[in-house]
Design goal:
single chain; about 325 residues; alpha+beta; HIT family, subunit A; ten-stranded antiparallel beta sheet
Length: about 325
């Protein structure tokens, strides 16, 4: 089994660009992708016009649709040209429909549902191994186009504005685990987020578990709605940013006529790179639209306050 390093995935990327025409062509198209920049609640947000991402933005993720399609993350259903690097229960593969200049998907080798609760330690280890990447997770009904197959994604670190925003954000501490791990809350481009900063896997996982169990359960879903991003900050430390959600897609996604914006927010969008897969959406969207979409799909100030109260309340029975 090949060792998983940043050099190894760089070599994988070069090999796939040589041998896999579909992937090579789609990465070449990134050089033609147009972008617009906005300021949303004092933060930088980029909108990327990327038609190749329509298959993800418009993906049907209801149980009926999933039952009638083959899982594109299972080894048997992948293109014959697609190669990968095995790491534990996962395989690192090049994403052929990229947002980032180098974009990877990291599915489990076994077909199992998209769930984060027992895998946050793996996410953190990946961030430390692949220091040049940010690892991210889209929860079921939070942007995952394959909610039936557990996976992370990875993209070039520094590409999403949220990384710089978190580094300079005003943090309000909520809880600690020993002396090396801290759970805080912050706001980034109007979104309420929770941040776990830890120097050990154990401390970070314990705080994430406390947060996970304090998040509101959404209807009959098996997992609270969330997007999660993770990156290394050096010295064996990793930052985990949890963006709790209350809605899958904004109302404008389903609107007709001029009010329609086919924007389906996932980790990258909430990380400050909004993906517009239709040219008309890219040209029409405004800072006010972005702020409204973020506000609609993310949790309110009152909801984040309730989560914090649950974490701090020693009598609260965490799920």
């Amino acid at each position: 089994m090949e060792e998983l390093t940043i050099d190894a995935i760089e070599a994988l990327f070069r090999q796939q660009m040589t041998e896999w025409g579909t992937s090579r062509d789609n990465y070449a198209k990134l050089s033609q992708v147009k972008v617009r920049e906005f300021t949303v609640h004092g933060s930088r947000v980029v909108v990327q016009c990327n038609p190749e991402r329509l298959r993800s933005s418009a993906a049907r993720v209801d149980k009926a649709a999933i039952a009638h399609r083959e899982c594109f993350l299972c080894t048997a259903n992948r293109p014959v040209e697609q190669r990968g690097i095995e790491w534990g229960d996962y395989t690192v593969i090049v994403n052929p429909y990229p947002i980032f200049p180098k974009h990877f998907t990291i599915p489990t080798r076994k077909h199992t549902a998209q769930r984060i609760v027992s895998r946050i330690g793996d996410m953190r280890r990946l961030a430390l191994l692949l220091e040049g990447c940010t690892i991210f997770y889209n929860g079921p009904c939070c942007g995952a186009s394959a909610p039936d197959h557990c996976h992370f994604q990875a993209g070039v670190k520094g590409f999403m504005p949220i990384e710089a925003e978190i580094a300079s954000a005003a943090m309000s501490e909520v809880a600690r685990e020993g002396s090396d791990a801290r759970l805080s809350t912050a706001q980034v481009h109007g979104c309420n987020v929770m941040v776990v900063d830890a120097a050990t896997v154990d401390g970070g996982c314990k705080l994430f578990d406390r947060l996970y169990r304090a998040l509101p359960q959404c209807n009959d879903r098996e997992e609270p709605m969330m997007n999660v991003l993770c990156w290394s900050t050096g010295e064996h430390r990793a930052t985990v940013v949890v963006i709790p959600r209350r809605k899958h897609r904004p109302d404008c996604y389903y609107s007709e006529g001029e009010g329609k914006l086919l924007i389906s927010p996932a980790s990258v969008d909430l990380g400050g790179v909004v993906i517009a897969s239709r040219k008309e959406d890219f040209e029409r969207i405004t800072a006010e639209d972005i702020a409204a979409i973020f506000s609609e799909v993310c949790i309110t100030d009152a909801e984040i306050a309730g989560i914090i109260d649950n974490i701090k309340d020693k009598n609260y029975k965490l799920r």
